[in-house]
């Protein structure tokens, strides 16, 4: 029916195939699960890398901020050496 057309998986699949989707690209439940697990594993590995990455001290962050402020105050984009 029109009401459940959006919710019926068979109707949804038929619509996709009708507009050109190839059935060969449909993942099995196991493939979907493996893909989800790989994504989760990558996220966990990235989080671990981030946690192991050295952090700047407050003093280092303060010095970088001072240097950036000084650079922004003195930078002249029209200076000939910067335009080449």
Automatic annotation (TrEMBL):
Top-level lineage group: Eukaryota
Sections of the chain in a coiled coil: none
Keywords per UniProt: DNA-binding, Metal-binding, Nucleus, Receptor, Transcription, Transcription regulation, Zinc, Zinc-finger
GO function term, MF aspect, one: sequence-specific DNA binding
Domain Nuclear receptor: 2-23
Pfam families reported in the protein's UniProt record: zf-C4
Keyword Cytoplasm included in the entry's annotation: no
Protein name: Vitamin D3 receptor
Organism field: Felis catus (Cat)
Originating gene: VDR
């Amino acid at each position: 029916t029109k009401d459940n057309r959006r919710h019926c998986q068979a109707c949804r699949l038929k619509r996709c195939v009708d507009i050109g989707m190839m059935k060969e690209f449909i993942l099995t439940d196991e493939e979907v699960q493996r893909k989800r697990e790989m994504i989760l594993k990558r996220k966990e590995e990235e989080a671990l890398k981030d946690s192991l990455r050295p952090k700047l001290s407050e003093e280092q962050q303060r010095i970088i901020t001072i240097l950036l402020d000084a650079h922004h105050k003195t930078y002249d984009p029209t200076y000939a050496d910067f335009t080449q």
